[in-house]
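Deviation from plan, reported transparently: DQA complex.
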Amino acid sequence: MNVLVIHGPNLNLLGVREPEVYGAATLEEVDRAIEETASELGITVEVHQTAREGEIIELLHDGMGRVGGAVLNPGAYTHTSRAIGDAIRAIDYPVVEVHLSNIHAREEWRKESVTGEAALGVISGFGVHSYLLGLRALSDAMEPDR
Ligand code: DQA
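Because the crystal trials were delayed, the predicted structure below was used instead.
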């Protein structure tokens, strides 16, 4: 089974960026933990990081017919991007949205997730584990052989 993992804007700065909010782990360390959990689950992951909204949409489209699911952290696009929400609705595989921080325990504007409305589910507030829990949730939800 193949899974796309997409990190959105500013997540390349993990470890440096507001560590009190997002934790001390770098993106490389997060990706290593994702790889470990994926191999435990028998999943092959393809990991991307991009600051560009359109690229997130294209990556989601490109997964059609090729991947069984995606774990997506849209960063701040979570709160604004109807286009990413529509892309999630358009594709033929499940997307689990993840956040390192608990978006419901922060500023008012972060509480709404316009992308999460289209996702299979949202996991928020468990740091690196949000990604790992997302992978586990997907491995149960995906059709076999994709
Ligand atoms: C985030 C939460 C968003 O509100 C923020 O803009 C991010 C990271 C998280 O993982 O906690 O960039 O998605």
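Helices lie at 19-22, 27-41, 53-62, 82-90, 128-141. We consider this an acceptable substitute for the interim report.
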